[in-house]
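hey so i finally got around to running both of the ones u sent me last week. sorry it took forever, my laptop kept dying halfway thru and i had to restart like 3 times lol. anyway pasting them below in the order u listed, first the sequence line then the structure token line for each. didnt double check formatting much so if smth looks off just lmk and ill redo it

first one:
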Amino acid sequence: MNLQLIKASADNIFTIQALASRIWQVAYLPIIGQKQIDYMLQMMYSSDAMRQQMERGHQFYLIQAEGENLGFMAIELNNQISGQSVLERELFIHKFYIDNGKQRSGIGSKIFALMLESQSIVSEVRLQVNRLNYKAINFYFKLGFVIEKVADFDIGGGYFMNDFIMLWRRNRQV
């Protein structure tokens, strides 16, 4: 399978929305329920919200194989600066979703490796994951992430995101 990370633009918002809606129904329904899914999809995946994320520097990618959209990811790069020079870059994964029928096939691990390859200066990767999303947590453990901290985020509407902040560090030889 020839996997690719294809840089997405505002022209791809509808495709990402459709993928998110389909994936979230399976992944989150037993964890947060339909009302919170609907609220969060509107909050994070409306056309306006996605354009704002892109304008703030979130880089969206479609995950494709042979032209088929299998998922998407959104990342943000942050520089660690010492004096006048950039020492290393931190990367935050805001979104990383593979179509439910394609999970457990190695796609996620390969895409993570492709993303790291394209971001070779990245020394640390962080992300948030729902504390009850055991499938995702175990996937991130497999990639080498560790739980850095526990955090609860009030997202409005009477809803909270109860997450782990997870950290991956590139092995650096001294």
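and the second one:
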Amino acid sequence: MAHKKTTVEASNVEQTVTVSEAFFDKNKKTLLYAFIALIAIIGGYFLYNNYVVEPREAKANDLIFKGQEYFAADNYEMALNGDGQGYIGFLNIAKEYGSTKAGNLAQLYAGISYAKLGKAQEAVECLKDFDDCDDEMVSPAALGALGNCYADLEQFDKAAATLVKAAEKANNNSLSPMFLMAAGQIYEAQGNIDKALDCYQTIKEEYINSMQYAEVDKYIEKISK
């Protein structure tokens, strides 16, 4: 009985091998083309990454460095539009290298530069096009800047909501209470006392190590009377 069972199993194995061989013979061209295509895709990815993505990122980084120098020197006009001596400006870096991290950062710098020049509407357009990144300080700061620009445009509902969103995204003692305080004051000026109080209470309860914590009580007392 055991011998018969072994014979049957051997027969099944042989049949499986035969079927597999037949399948491969019938489909070997398709399988070969699929394998070649897979190799081409993998190779293409590495080629694109090594010879297109990385060089573009490096180039954008080189370009943005000069812009950061102009920005730090408060030369926002030149930071935005270039100096005619090789530096093309944040606007052009963002346009030509928008797919890179440095190009995306140039978009943020352009928005803040416009804000510094008092051009709030242009700043809003740039800041809205900034793609969220993983940096826990940069992304909330970009939202905070957008909120401030909305306030400059007297779009106070958008301003306060954006500042609260920025505070939630940051969730730290440096940025969050600053944004919440700004949002609270906007709500307060609009007569929206409940939302203003929510902002101030959040500072008091969640950000006790912040600078704003030391003065938030007076804001709470003022609108709680």
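quick thing i noticed on the 2nd:
The chain has ten helices and no strands.
anyway thats it, ttyl
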